[in-house]
Amino acid sequence: MKLCVFDFDSTLMDGETIDFFAQELGIGERVSEITERAMNGDLDFFESLQERVGLLKGLEYKKVEEISHDLPYMNGAIETIKALKEQNIKVVCFSGGFRTATSYAKDILGYDADFSNVLHHKDGLLTGLVGGDMMFNYSKGDMITRLQKILNISEEETMVVGDGANDLSMFAHAGTRVAFCAKEVLRNEANIIIDTKDLTQILPKIGM
Fold first, then answer.
1. Are the CB atoms for 139 and 44 separated by under 8 Å?
2. Mean per-residue pLDDT over the chain, rounded
3. Which of 47, 35, 138, 37 is nearest to 94 (CA)?
């Protein structure tokens, strides 16, 4: 194995970043219901992302940063990434969430790079607009094939870890596919299933 790609929300982090933002505005239940349907594969990811971010319009960007920097990381995330990197495996984070969270977590959790989305803000407030690397259902698959070409790494040398429907596209390009406390739609495509919130449980499954 030479490359491992982790999802962020509900994989490296225990929860959904956008749900934490929504709670600040008192619309947590409304947003989490849309998130749940998107992760189950019942909604188009791009449309659901636009809808959820639109509901955040007016939230202070300063508060976005504060929440992003105080997220609960998943049990075993640091230890698992450290063990992988000790074997000279490149570790990357792909997230349909936001760079305020993934870039901040990069040095804490120890992964090499992050690809995620950016919340547009103006005059200190969210505008309800979003752009970035991981906007579509196919984005993770598209990005992983680019990385494999750049790094000269095959599908067989690639492991992916995720929990929801927007991870399906990267599962299609990896030899080792870990469904971590995952939705049924993703479990069906996995060859390793972990049902406990402890990422270190992956290590013995891959002979580490």
1. no
2. 96
3. 138
pLDDT tens, 124-164? 999 999 999 999 999 999 999 999 999 999 999 999 999 99
Measure the CA–CA gap between 45 and 144, rounded to whole angstroms. 18
To the nearest 10°, report the CA torsion of 56, 62, 63, 66: 130
Which H helix or E strand runs over 51? Answer: helix 45-54
CB of 16 closer than 8 Å to CB of 171: no
Q: What residues contact 135, with CB distance under 8 A and at least 6 apart?
A: 45, 46, 49, 96, 117
Q: Which domains does the chain have, with CATH numbers?
A: 3-205 (3.40.50.1000)
Residues 163, 94: Cα–Cα separation, whole Å = 12
**Single-letter amino acid code for the residue at 42:** D
Cα–Cα distance measured from residue 96 to residue 167, given in angstroms and rounded to the nearest whole number: 9
Q: Is-contact 118 99, C-beta < 8 A?
A: yes
Q: What is the mean pLDDT of residues 163-167?
A: 93
Residue tagged active-site, from 7, 19, 133, 163: 7
Query: For the sheet containing 176-180, what is the strand order?
Result: 125-132, 113-122, 90-98, 3-7, 158-162, 176-180, 192-194
Active site residue 7: yes
Q: Is the CB of residue 12 less than 8 Å from the CB of residue 105?
A: yes
